[in-house]
Amino acid sequence: MTIEELQKWVNDDWKKNSKLKPDLQAQLLFAIEEFGEVAEAIRKKTMSGDYKQDDDKLGSEFADFLVTLVTLANTFDINLTKEMEGFQTKLAARRA
C-alpha cells in the first residue's frame, strides 16, 4: 500500500465506519497514547530476557500509530506523498 492509498483508506474508513470523527484535541491525545503504546511494546520486547516477546504486538502498535498520524494529516489536508518527496529532496541537498 502506498502512502496515498493509506491516506485514502483511512479517510474512507472514517467516513464509512465512524459516526463522529474526534476533534483535533482528541486526535492529538490519541497520537500521544498510541506513541506510548509503541514505546511500551518496544520496552517489553527489548528489556525482557526473551526478545521474541510481543513480536505481533509491536507491529500492531506501529500500525495503530501510523493510522493515527495519517488521520491527523488528513485533518489538515496534508498530502503525505508530496511532503515526503519534498523531504527527500531537502535531505539529498543537505548531503550534496
CATH class: Mainly Alpha
- Specify the biggest β-sheet: none
At CATH level 2, the architecture is Orthogonal Bundle
What low-confidence regions span 5 or more consecutive residues with pLDDT below 50? none
Helix content: over 70%
What's the multimeric state?
A: single chain
CATH topology: Helix Hairpins
Percent strand equals under 5%
- The CATH superfamily appears as MazG-like
Q: Describe the global form.
A: globular
Number of helices: 4
- Structural class, by secondary structure, is mainly alpha
Compute the average pLDDT.
Answer: 91
- End-to-end Cα distance, whole Å, is 31 Å
List the helices and strands and how they pair.
Layout: H1 3-17, H2 24-46, H3 55-75, H4 80-95
Helix pairs in contact: 1-3, 2-3
What would you note in describing this structure?
- It is a single chain.
- With 96 residues, this protein is an all-alpha fold.
- The chain has a single domain (3-12, 23-95), classed as Orthogonal Bundle (Helix Hairpins).
- Helices cover 78% and strands 0% of the residues.
- It contains four helices and no strands.
- It has helices spanning 3-17, 24-46, 55-75, 80-95.
- Helix 1 (3-17) crosses helix 3.
- The two termini are 31 Å apart.
- The model has no long low-confidence stretch (mean pLDDT 91).
In a few lines, what is going on in this structure?
By secondary structure, this protein is mostly helical. It is about 80% helix and about 0% strand. The chain contains four helices and no strands.
